[in-house]
Amino acid sequence: MTAIRVLLADDHHLVRTGFRVILETEDDFEVIGEASDGEQAVRLVSALQPDVVLMDVEMPGLDGLAATRRITATPDGPAVLILTTFDRDDYLFAALEAGASGFLLKNGTPEALIDAVRVLARGDALLAPELTRRVIATFARPGGNPRTSGEQLAELTAREHEVLVAMASGATNAEIAASMHLGEATVKTHVSRVLTKLGLRDRTQAVVFAYEHGVVTPGG
What we know:
This protein is an alpha/beta fold. Helices cover 52% and strands 14% of the residues. Strand 1 (4-9), helix 1 (13-23) and strand 2 (29-35) form a beta-alpha-beta unit. It is globular and about 50 Å long.
């Protein structure tokens, strides 16, 4: 079994040590490096090519959000999981816009962290349910951001549009496959095509896109 290669980026040594201890209790994880600031994280990503980066937000010099933008701008770069002590909407939305594939608070459980890294490593995205609700609520505000993007959406086939709607509802690939009577491999192909045609990095951005552009509406 190939281990999931993880890079830790946090300016607190004790925090990095704690994450390392949690992850290294699992046989399928390998912590391959540690960074104490954003610049170092960007350099180590290039040098070590991890699968997943655990990224703090507030670090000296280049912060975690800026570092995430630089990391995700690279084709085939690692997935970035933002971990922060601060439950702030501006951090959440800035992380999504920067290309992060997941967002967790540091007061979560070790099990939640382990699960999140595995989710990102297999190419999916992760938001805690309460954070997903806040994303939806933001785009559902009267006078907010609902708009259409006809050219992009017109590129989707009818089936791909169905898959986008299902992703926005929070359905997993297995759930989409069951509801549409498709194989999971076929669903993965549809998901990949949706992301490519819409210019999106992952499922989290697909959920944001769907609500922001009026493809789905809360309760719809």
